[in-house]
Each structure stands twice: as C-alpha cells, then as structure tokens.
From TrEMBL:
Keywords: ATP-binding, Cell membrane, Membrane, Nucleotide-binding, Transport
A single cellular component GO annotation: ATP-binding cassette (ABC) transporter complex, substrate-binding subunit-containing
One GO process term, biological-process aspect: carbohydrate transport
Transmembrane segments: none
UniProt protein name: sn-glycerol-3-phosphate ABC transporter ATP-binding protein UgpC
Native organism: Rubrivivax albus
Record-level Gene Ontology MF annotations: ABC-type transporter activity; ATP binding; ATP hydrolysis activity
Shown part of the complete sequence: 1 to 225 of 354
Domain ABC transporter: 4-225
Length: 225
C-alpha cells in the first residue's frame, strides 16, 4: 500500500497543454476513480503516474518519494489495460509470470504467487491455455492476475471493463471491489462510466478538459441536493 500525490501536474504535447496543473492525493488503501468524458485527460494522467508518459511540469510522489524521473519498472506500480495486453503465444501461467521473471523472482515464489492470484480470480483450472481460448472476461481476469502477482504498491486500471458486455461489467465491478478489500490495495481507476465511478470509488476525481473539477466521495458528488 502506498499514497500517491500529484502536485501541479501538467502535460503538454508540443505547444498544446492537455492537463492543466492537477493537485490531488490518493491515500493508502484508497480506491480512487478518475472520471470524465472522452478527451478530458484521464488516460494521460494515469499514464504519467505509470511512467508511460513524461510529466511536463509538477511533481509526482509515491510514499513521499519523487518519482517523476523513475522508469515504469522502478515505480512499484502495476497497470491493467483496457485491451488486456496479453502475450498471445504464452500460456496464462506464463502471461502472469512474465513480469516476475523479468525481475528475477525465484521460481518457487513465481509458482506460489501465480497460483494464489489464479485461485483468487477463479482461473486456476485454465492456466495452460492461451489467451485466444478465453472469453473477454477471462482475459481481463488474467490481466488483473498479472498485476496482482507483482504485489505492487499501487494498482492502475485504465478503462478495464469497457470491452466487456453489460453482464460481465457488472460481475467484474464486484470482483474488482472484492479484490480491493482482500488486498487492501491502493487503486487509481480510470473510466468514463459514472456507474462504475459511483459504485466502486472511495473518492471520485471528476475531470473536465484537463482540469480537476471535484474530488470527493460518490455520495457527496452525486447525491448532494
Ligand atoms: P481521456 O483518457 O480522458 O479520453 P486522453 O488523456 O486520452 O483523454 O487525452 C487528453 C487530450 O490529450 C485529448 O485532447 C487528446 O487528444 C490529447 N492527446 C492524447 N495523447 C496525445 C498525443 N500523443 N499527442 C497529442 N495529443 C494527445
Ligand atoms: P511487466 O513487467 O509485467 O511487463 P510493466 O508494468 O513493467 O509490466 O511494463 C508494462 C509495459 O508494457 C509498459 O512499459 C508499457 O509500455 C507496455 N504496454 C503493454 N501493453 C500496453 C498497452 N495496451 N498500452 C500501452 N502500453 C502497454
């Protein structure tokens, strides 16, 4: 678990600024959802936290340490992508183990962590299959499993349910909430779906055109008279 602080975070592409000085703090163990319409800068913000995009201005801290210059692999975060980003030629087991192998984790530790995550996600019976043999919901479970086995300080989710049908979205919402409670993880979750924001978040950051409009509990944002 860790806290994440964004202080005056800006992003410019060439001369065009698309994120205009965002200040917010995500507390230890908190589930924060960034919500807002397409193009408001949610993804860019998340990718800056992940280290996949450079930060043009401002400071990003994880547990008090400035991480602006740290490469993604050194940030102790794990990201779940909308398109799952699985390796098609690897088995589910190897997809989940990959990040640990890169980091030279001992084999028995890899076995243990992958099996634990697979049980948690109820995919332990399909670990020798390849992604093509899975449904969308199962693929998303593998993508989540790959993040869990890393035991990162912070989980980042980028519209993870957008490619699923309504029924599966509903199921996976509960599943991800359950994981949050089980793992006590710090989570930043990006979506354009207000229902996801309302039902999953401890706090919601409402973004519009690169600015933070509101940062509060779902109740305060949606039910305030
Ligand atoms: P969201 O995730 O909320 O849909 P994005 O973070 O993807 O929004 O995009 C925010 C803004 O930044 C948009 O106006 C988008 O067109 C612009 N943008 C995103 N990536 C790039 C890029 N690589 N080059 C130039 N502009 C970009
Ligand atoms: P792992 O160690 O499991 O590979 P990391 O978080 O260290 O995980 O690295 C994941 C890398 O994968 C990122 O650096 C990113 O560049 C890349 N990546 C994979 N899928 C995507 C995607 N859909 N969009 C953007 N980047 C991706």
């Amino acid at each position: 678990m860790a806290n994440v602080e964004l202080r005056g975070i800006r992003k410019r592409y060439g001369n065009v600024e698309v994120v205009h000085g965002i200040d917010l703090e995500v507390r230890h163990g908190e589930f924060v959802v960034f919500v807002g319409p397409s193009g408001c800068g949610k993804s860019t913000l998340l990718r800056m936290v992940a280290g996949l995009e450079g930060i043009s201005d401002g400071e990003l801290r994880i547990d008090g340490q400035r991480v602006n210059e740290l490469p993604p692999r050194s940030r102790d975060i794990a990201m779940v992508f909308q398109d799952y980003a699985l390796y098609p030629h690897k088995t589910l087991f190897e997809n989940m183990a990959f990040g640990l192998r890169l980091r030279k984790t001992p084999e028995d530790e890899i076995q243990r962590r992958v099996m634990d995550a697979a049980r948690l996600l109820k995919i332990e019976h399909m670990l020798e299959r390849r992604p093509a043999a899975l449904s969308g919901g199962q693929r998303q479970r593998v993508a989540i499993g790959r993040a869990i086995v890393r035991q990162p300080k912070v989980f980042l989710f980028d519209e993870p349910l957008s490619n699923l049908d309504a029924q599966l979205r509903h199921e996976m919402r509960s599943e991800i909430k359950r994981l949050h409670q089980r793992l006590g993880a710090t989570i930043i979750y990006v979506t354009h779906d207000q229902v996801e924001a309302m039902t999953m978040a401890d706090r919601i950051a409402v973004l519009s055109a690169g600015e933070l409009m509101q940062y509060d509990t779902p109740d305060a944002i949606y039910n305030r008279p």
